[in-house]
């Protein structure tokens, strides 16, 4: 946990003090509190912090808010964790504006409904339910708990390769459906890691168990418990007619503004599918190649995905063709090799212990026939 201010909060902003002492709700949390009773009636219970009449449990105790579950604020003010009353499962509620993000509901539900839902290449956001907020412009998705794709850390080359095999497969499915994502930045590629954890963790404090009574146990590796990866957040996405073979957009969208087509002073007509390719290439460059050692052989493919000239940039079919060749070229022992975190500041004895643990795990995986490319069950 840290005490950095949320986006837009300054020392003269009321949210600044609320963020530091946690005794009051920040502005983005108030909406959820005001709708807590209605959400409970729909079957979703928010944490005590967001219930009417909440009093901080650490108030007047002399203790710090970090020791209490109701001191946890939201990481993203449009997304909140809740307990589904029908079965006690933790789910995520995402609020979005139907006016500002008109395509988000239709595209998300197209992908979350049959026949797209059952397609083996579909890696889009799973959705349990979608409902409108009465009298308001907002709708709410109910989704499973997902994590950032690179948490916990990767252990092997094969784990990295399987991750992006799924991402490329999911992106190809979107493009085959004539859907351009248009915001494929790092936080929109997620992992369903629930099977990797020995016990449920707290969504807002992943180092703690769900009841916030103890530190959570260390997760299994991706090789031991193969996860599925998902592409999320279709708020800026577009679905084009099958007859529109070469769709174009004018205004730059998305968080990644390093896209070459967006670098000019004036808006540039661009191919949104090519932008998707560039953005995924950027994710690999910034969050794999710059962070880990052991995957340098991916650099030529990433360079082709980040080609400044969109006319020369790889299309998704070319990406997958090249990627499959890379997969076939790696020997089993290369796939099981460790990827090391470049900024790891561990002592020598800790590194030796990590290597020994990896060797022990690898022998176990081989003896139990666990694949070096850990694919999840369908």
UniProtKB/TrEMBL annotation:
User: What is the name of this protein?
Assistant: Protein kinase domain-containing protein
Return the SUPFAM superfamilies for the record: Protein kinase-like (PK-like) (SSF56112)
GO molecular function term, any single one? protein kinase activity
Which InterPro entries does the UniProt entry name for this protein? Kinase-like_dom_sf (IPR011009), Prot_kinase_dom (IPR000719)
Record's Pfam families? Answer: Pkinase
- Which branch of life, at top level? Eukaryota
Q: Which Gene3D superfamilies match?
A: Transferase(Phosphotransferase) domain 1 (1.10.510.10)
Protein kinase domain sequence ranges: 1-378
Instruction: State the species of origin.
Output: Cerrena zonata
């Amino acid at each position: 946990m840290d005490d950095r201010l949320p986006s837009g909060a300054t020392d003269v902003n009321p949210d600044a003090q609320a963020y530091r002492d946690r005794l009051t709700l920040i502005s983005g949390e108030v909406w959820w509190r005001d709708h807590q009773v209605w959400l409970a009636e729909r079957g979703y219970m928010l944490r005590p912090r967001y219930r009417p009449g909440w009093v901080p449990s650490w108030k007047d105790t002399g203790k710090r808010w970090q020791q209490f579950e109701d001191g946890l604020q939201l990481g993203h003010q449009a997304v909140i964790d809740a307990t589904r009353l029908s079965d006690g499962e933790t789910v995520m509620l995402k609020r979005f504006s139907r006016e500002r993000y008109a395509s988000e509901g239709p595209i998300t539900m197209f992908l979350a409904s049959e026949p797209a839902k059952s397609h083996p290449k579909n890696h889009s956001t799973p959705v349990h339910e979608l409902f409108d907020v009465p009298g308001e412009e907002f709708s709410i998705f109910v989704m499973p708990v997902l994590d950032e794709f690179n948490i916990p850390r990767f252990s092997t080359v094969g784990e990295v390769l399987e991750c992006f095999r799924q991402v490329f497969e999911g992106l190809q499915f979107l493009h085959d459906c004539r859907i351009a994502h248009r915001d494929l930045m790092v936080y929109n590629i997620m992992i369903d890691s629930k099977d990797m954890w020995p016990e449920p963790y707290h969504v807002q404090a992943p180092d703690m168990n769900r009841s916030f009574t103890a530190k959570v146990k260390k997760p299994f590796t991706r090789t031991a418990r193969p996860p599925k990866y998902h592409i999320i957040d279709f708020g800026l996405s577009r679905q084009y007619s099958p007859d529109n073979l070469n769709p174009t957009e004018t205004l730059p969208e998305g968080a990644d503004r390093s896209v070459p087509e967006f670098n000019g002073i004036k808006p540039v007509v661009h191919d949104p599918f090519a932008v998707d390719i560039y953005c995924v290439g950027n994710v690999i460059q910034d969050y794999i190649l710059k962070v880990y050692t052991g995957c340098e052989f991916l650099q030529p493919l990433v360079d082709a995905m980040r080609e400044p000239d969109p006319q020369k940039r790889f299309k998704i079919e070319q990406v997958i063709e090249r990627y499959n060749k890379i997969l076939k070229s790696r020997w089993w022992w290369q796939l099981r090799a460790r990827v090391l975190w470049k900024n790891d500041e561990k002592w020598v004895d800790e590194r030796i212990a990590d290597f020994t643990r990896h060797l022990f795990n690898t022998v176990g995986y081989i003896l139990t026939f666990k694949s070096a490319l850990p694919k999840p069950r369908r």
